[in-house]
Design a protein that fits this description.
about 130 residues, mainly alpha, Cytochrome Bc1 Complex, Chain D, domain 2
Length: about 130
Amino acid sequence: MRVGLGFNFSVWLLIVSIAIVFVAPALSSGEEDKAAPNMESVEKGKELFQSKSCVACHTIGGGKLSGPDLQGVTDRREQVWLEKWLMSPDTMIYTDPIAKELLKEYFVPMPNQGLTVEETVDIISYLKFEDSEK
């Protein structure tokens, strides 16, 4: 029996969605740490923000580009949501109401950058640091 592309995509989407449910709690302790930032993580996050070309679509305090300005994003969005978004934006646009609204507003879906859990934590550390400095 031959299985069509639609089935494969559906199975893939289901697997990724289930993985997000199980991986996301491991990313966050549930409490946002208000202590001094880990500057090593902040620096790695800054480097990733530039090397993954996030700067092509986003600013931090410089206004909207083809994606939203990220100043204050760690205040607007919960930690777990940011983790899920950074790990799998391509699946969230099908399942998450906020992601669906962002796609309606900006028309361009955020590409999946293939970030690891550590890279995701580093980028969020950088965004939190930037938010604390403004």
